Amino acid sequence: MRYLISLISVRSMVIPSIAIASIMIPFVVAMLMNTVTAEKVAAQTLPVPHAITDPKQIASKPNAQVEPKSLTIEKLYMTRQVGGATWSPDGKNIAFISNMSGRNNLWVVPSDGGWPMQLTVSDQRQTAPTWSPDGKWIAYQSDYDGDELWDIFLVSPKTGKVVNLTSTREIAETDPTWSPDGRYLAYLVKPKTSAASEIDIYDTLMREVKHLTANTPQDKRSTNPIWSKDGKYIVYTQEQAKGTDSNIFIADVATSQSTLLTPHEGEQNYLANDIAPNGKHILFTSNAQNGHDNAGLIDIDTKTIAWLTHDKWEIRAHQFSPDGKRVIFTANVDGNENVYLHDLAGGKATALPIPNGVNTPEGDQSAFSQDGSRLLYNHNGPTAPGDLWVYTVATGKSHQLTNSLVAGIRSEDMVEPFLVHYPSRDGKFTISAFLYVPFNMARNGQNAAIVYIHGGPASQSMNSFNRFIQFAANQGYMVIAPNYRGSTGYGKEFQQANLFDMGGGDLQDVLAGVDWIKQTGHLDPKKIAVMGGSYGG
Question: CA-based diameter of the chain, in Å?
Answer without folding.
Answer: 74
